């Protein structure tokens, strides 16, 4: 992500709250000590936010694992995480987490009330579309200035993002504050679902899945939010879009959308 220039400018994500709506988090991990917000909650009836399947923890590590000089660290390694566990009880333990859309709706409202600036959804919802109540929760969040990063999909050569995500991004309730994250390889070759109909709301980062690049985009926004405390959510997203590295056809296109995250360009 070419993040070094952001770190040299003092951006670490400190003081920025990012909500991760997923399968919870490893509560015993030292990677997040002191940075899991007390508003974190299980909204699906599992009894705790402790991650059984590992997906939510992996997402959290990409976004905000601490910078301690060992191994890798998260993009916004000082950010505060508001963790919402939304997997249907028993599904992660069976090997394939299935998420409750009603639990996600509840988590969106809780994230807003807890002071999140960004909501990360590294979630695939199959062929489902957003319910009216889901869009109402999105509406309340974007009206409050929150930004969403949502997984665009992992289908190789997919012409459009997953339907649930693109339907949210294209809805009036989104207010243009939802970004769909795709993924490219180290040579900027598109690997997953493409921008398609949601080109105006799509950008990619370098990674192996949209579950990985969605928190990269969220982390980039958290760095910008800390560095630019006077900017609104839409203004932060506009800056990230404007600084993207172009891919494919010049300008916005149906493969790369707004382009590829490049933090060197975002922190001139």
**Record field, number of beta strands:** 7
- Main sheet strand line-up: 2-3-1-4-5-6-7
CATH superfamily: Peptidase S8/S53 domain
CATH class: Alpha Beta
Overall pLDDT level: 96
State the order of secondary-structure elements, H for helix, E for strand. Answer: HEEHEHEHEHEEHHH
Span between N and C termini? 14 Å
Number of helices: 8
The profile of the biggest β sheet is: 7 strands, parallel
Fraction in helix: 25-40%
In quaternary terms, these chains amount to single chain
Radius of gyration, in angstroms, nearest whole number: 17 Å
Q: Identify the overall geometry.
A: globular
Class computed from helices, strands and strand pairing: alpha/beta
CATH structural fold name:
Rossmann fold
| Parts with pLDDT < 50 across at least 5 consecutive residues | none
CATH architecture classification name: 3-Layer(aba) Sandwich
Number of domains: 1
């Amino acid at each position: 992500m070419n993040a070094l220039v952001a770190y040299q400018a003092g951006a670490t994500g400190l003081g920025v709250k990012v909500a991760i709506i997923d399968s919870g988090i490893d509560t015993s991990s030292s990677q997040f000590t002191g940075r899991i917000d007390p508003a974190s909650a299980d909204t699906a009836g599992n009894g705790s936010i402790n991650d059984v399947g590992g997906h939510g923890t992996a997402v959290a590590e990409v976004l905000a694992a601490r910078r301690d000089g060992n191994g890798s660290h998260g993009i916004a390694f000082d950010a505060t995480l508001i963790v919402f566990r939304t997997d249907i009880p028993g599904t992660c333990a069976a090997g394939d987490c299935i998420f409750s859309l009603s639990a996600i709706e509840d988590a969106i409202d809780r994230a807003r009330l807890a002071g999140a600036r960004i909501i990360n959804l590294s979630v695939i919802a199959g062929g489902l579309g957003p319910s009216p109540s889901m869009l109402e929760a999105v509406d309340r969040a974007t009206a409050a200035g929150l930004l969403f990063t949502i997984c665009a999909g992992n289908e190789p050569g997919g012409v459009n993002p997953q339907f649930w995500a693109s339907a949210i991004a294209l809805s009036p309730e989104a207010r243009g504050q939802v970004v769909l994250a795709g993924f490219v390889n180290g040579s900027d070759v598109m690997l997953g679902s493409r921008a398609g109909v949601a080109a105006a709301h799509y950008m990619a980062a370098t990674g192996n899945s949209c579950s990985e690049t969605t928190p990269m985009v969220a982390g980039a926004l958290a760095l910008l939010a800390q560095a630019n405390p006077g900017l609104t959510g839409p203004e932060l997203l506009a800056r990230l879009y404007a600084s993207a590295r172009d891919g494919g056809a010049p300008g916005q296109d149906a493969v790369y959308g707004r382009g590829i995250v490049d933090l060197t360009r975002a922190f001139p």
